[in-house]
Design a protein that fits this description.
Blueprint lengths: L3 H5 L5 E3 L4 E6 L2 E9 L4 E6 H9 L6 H11 L7 H13 L3 E3 L4 H21 L4 E7 L2 H11 L5 H20 L1 H7 L12 H25 L7 E6 L2 E6 L10 H28 L4 H21 L7 H10 L4 H18 L11 H35 L5 H30 L1 H23 L2 E12 L4 E4 L4 E5 L6 E2 L4 E6 L1 H27 L4 H30 L1 E3 L4 E4 L30 E2 L4 E6 L5 E7 H4 L7 E6 L6 E9 L9 H5 L16 E9 L12 E11 L1 H12 L4
Antiparallel strand pairs: 1-5, 2-3, 3-4, 6-7, 7-8, 9-18, 9-22, 10-17, 11-13, 11-16, 12-15, 13-14, 15-17, 18-21, 19-20, 19-22, 20-21
Length: 734
């Protein structure tokens, strides 16, 4: 018998719609129910407590009456009046209830008009993604199911899994080839191949969506919508298989959700096998690209349960939590509300303590990952549009995304402000919590923290003294790499028969000219003719002497001496020439190599460097946004590719103010820096930073021109400054 308070309280004027299709979500137990709205073609999940609340709405019972009945029916679950009001509001907004009082249809009409008026604004706030309804694919799916329904046989599905496993083993066995061929994918993003790549992505997504639709249709579900979903200017197909929610067999629901993932993985496996058996060429790279796109898309997007795509629905069905996304997000937000505003729990649930906090962690992770994916997508689109000189469009998309997030935050803040204003007891607690949260946020964002940047580097001779061949000749090396020399030690001796012959001839000419001048000097007192010829003869002697001195100096230059004490460092290896000018001119390697003895060396050829290990410098390459944070004397830790276990310390000695026009070929060969095709010019603006190294006695010094990565300690930078610098250097708003 209802109490006096229950009878005096007004009844809830709502009743569950009788045209809704309601059935148990799982045949094994009726803890979860599926509700289908046949008018809107929308679907809802309701747990046992929520379904009981909806069934108790008869237009005659008050809120407290329903609350008492629920407590009797579910004694192990905590209920509150505020909790029921929130769920009632969500059920009304979802269209599951009809009013028991007149005038509700007029209110619904006003809401409908308001939604239509707000539709353009919603489209403006969702420029990143937009959906266009397409055709009813039922006939197509029926035909496909008739001809290809056999693929759902368990043995066929096992065979597909085995093919995927075989492809994984094959790719793992050829991981070295995969690493070397990855840079070739960049060629597919050229203006010529970009349309082909777009068609391949459309083909992948078409098979993906037909996989969903065919699986849903095969297991008795309905699919009445096949349309186009535009994500970041990329048109993709989508297939509405929401009817699979009515499937009471959880395993079949999971198969429908996982059909797209399975289709892409099988396609990736087939392309991996084709990549392994094809020769190098466009198709070979194309198969590699499709394999990577399909597999990475599955791991990062479709198969990732943190996003509300295929992987999410598989995990939600597997865990038996249909509303996993909304419940986890609500749990995470409820934790923030409790910590900051002091709100009490707003949800009733029978979940354990561990499950509750796992849901909270999942909610926070999904929100962070969503922001990360949106940011990555915006960055990728900016790079793609920049190649077509359309980067200004990214500002429109960025404004749309930021406005969408801002409106969501404003609505949430307005709702919480209303709750705080309606409860004076919460006001002081909420104000103090918000102030504390703002202070902590400001500290996290604006307090400078240690910061370092990674940069590729090459070990260069630095301030070592260069030793050049001053004349042409056949080389005879007298030292080798790593030898210790003193000032004046012979580095190499060059042989030049032409020069030797010229010196001998000049010596003879000098002797002849000297003898002629001496004879004329003897005869000048007796012969006026001899006296007149003497000045010309003396001039010839001086000319022959100057020529002999010049040739003698050239002859002395054939002996290359060390300019100072130190260690002999070999110059950069000269690659094998493609064509030979003439015999003996096409040497390759290092000039001091023993196998290059008697090879013809041109003048100004770098033979070696002479210096100590303290004279060496590591030349680091950094983009403009990072060079601004580097200071002279900054600490540096260098790791060489050839010696990954050895870490060498150093300090910054010089920062180049002029961008580098050429980069070392070792960095290009190791794929550390991108260069323009068939040149040594960097694709982006890079600045050089010289770093002096500090080798100790136990450190093995790597060969000259070894490459690696350097970690440079910068001035402390706050998180807000980093984010602002990233935005300013990534996007241009003009």
């Amino acid at each position: 018998m209802p109490s006096a308070s229950e009878t005096s309280e007004p009844a809830l004027p709502w009743r569950l719609r009788s045209d809704l299709l309601i059935q148990a979500a799982d045949v094994s137990h009726a803890a979860t129910w599926t509700i289908k709205d046949p008018m809107r073609l929308t679907y809802f999940y309701a747990e046992a407590e929520e379904m009981a609340f909806l069934n108790l709405l008869n237009g005659q019972t008050s809120l407290n009456g329903i609350l008492n009945q629920l407590r009797q029916q579910f004694p192990e679950t905590e209920f509150s009046a505020e909790n029921l009001r929130q769920f009632l509001l969500s059920a009304v907004n979802g269209g599951l209830l009809r009013a028991c009082v007149p005038g509700h249809s007029l209110r619904l009409n006003l809401i409908r008009k308001r939604q239509l008026a707000q539709a353009p604004l919603r489209r403006m706030l969702s420029l990143l993604t937009h959906r266009y309804r397409g055709i009813d694919p039922t006939r197509i799916l029926n035909v496909l199911d008739h001809f290809f329904g056999w693929i759902f046989h368990k043995y066929i599905m096992v065979a597909g899994v085995l093919i995927c496993g075989l492809a994984c083993l094959m790719v793992f066995a050829r991981r070295g080839q995969l690493e070397t061929e990855l840079p070739g994918i960049a060629a597919l993003f050229t203006a010529t191949n970009l349309p082909i790549l777009a068609l391949s992505l459309l083909f992948i997504k078409m098979l993906h969506e037909f996989g969903h639709g065919l699986t849903c249709r095969h297991y008795g579900g309905e699919c009445h919508e096949l349309g186009v979903l535009v994500v970041g200017f990329m048109p993709l197909l989508y297939c509405d298989v929401s009817d699979s929610w009515l499937q009471q067999d959880r395993r079949r629901r999971m198969l429908v959700s996982a059909a797209g993932i399975g289709t892409e993985l099988f396609l990736a496996a087939i392309c991996a096998l084709l990549w392994a058996v094809t020769r190098h060429g466009f198709l070979h790279t194309f198969f590699l690209n499709v394999m990577l796109v399909s597999s990475l898309n599955t791991m990062l997007i479709n198969g990732n349960p943190l996003l509300k795509y295929d992987g999410y629905y598989v995990v939600a069905d597997w865990l038996g939590i249909p509303n996993l996304a909304s419940e986890s997000r609500a749990s995470a937000i409820a934790v923030l509300d409790r910590m900051i505003l002091g709100f009490s729990g707003m949800s009733f649930t029978r979940r354990s303590f561990g499950t509750h906090w796992a849901m909270v962690a999942y909610g926070f992770a999904s929100m962070v990952y969503r922001i990360l994916v949106v940011t990555t997508l915006m960055w990728f689109m900016y790079g793609m549009l920049k190649a077509w000189h359309l980067e200004s469009l990214i500002s429109v998309l960025l404004a749309s995304v930021v406005a969408g997030f801002a409106m969501t935050a404003v609505r949430g803040g307005h709702e919480r402000l209303r709750i705080v204003n309606s409860n004076p007891a919460l006001r002081i607690r909420a104000i103090s919590g918000v102030c504390l949260a703002v202070c902590l946020l400001l500290i996290v964002l604006f307090v400078p923290i240690p910061y370092s940047v990674a940069a590729p580097f090459t070990l260069t001779p630095g301030v070592c003294a260069p030793v050049y061949a001053l004349e042409d000749g056949e080389i005879d090396a007298r030292v080798s790499e790593g030898d210790i020399v003193e000032t004046g030690d012979v580095i190499a001796v060059l042989s030049n028969a032409t020069l030797e012959s010229a010196v001998t001839q000049a010596q003879g000419e000098f002797r002849v000219a000297t003898a002629r001048a001496a004879g004329l000097a003897t005869q000048r007192s007796a012969s006026s003719q001899a006296a007149s010829r003497l000045p010309a003869a003396e001039k010839a002697v001086r000319s022959r002497e100057l020529r002999l001195e010049k040739l003698s100096q050239k002859q002395q230059n054939l002996t290359v001496l060390s300019p100072g004490p130190g260690i002999v460092f070999a110059p950069r290896n000269k690659p094998r020439p493609r064509t030979h000018a003439r015999e003996g001119m096409g040497w390759f390697g290092r000039p001091l190599d023993p196998e290059l003895n008697s090879v013809w060396i041109h003048r100004q050829t770098l033979l070696c460097w002479v210096g100590t290990d303290r004279d060496l410098r590591a030349l680091c390459l950094l983009p403009q946004e990072d060079i601004e944070l580097i200071e002279d004397g900054a600490e540096v830790t260098l790791t060489f590719v050839s010696l990954p276990a050895v870490h060498v310390t150093g300090s910054v000695t010089q920062r180049n103010a002029i961008p580098e026009t050429l980069i070392d070929r070792e960095l290009i060969a190791n794929h550390m820096v991108s260069a323009t095709p068939d040149s040594l010019r960097p694709q982006e603006t890079m600045f050089g930073v010289a770093v002096s190294l500090q080798f100790d006695s136990s450190t093995t010094m790597p060969p000259l021109y070894s490459s690696g990565f350097a970690e440079i300690r910068c001035v402390p930078v706050s998180l807000a400054s980093r984010a602002w610098r990233f935005i300013c250097h990534t996007f241009t708003f003009r």
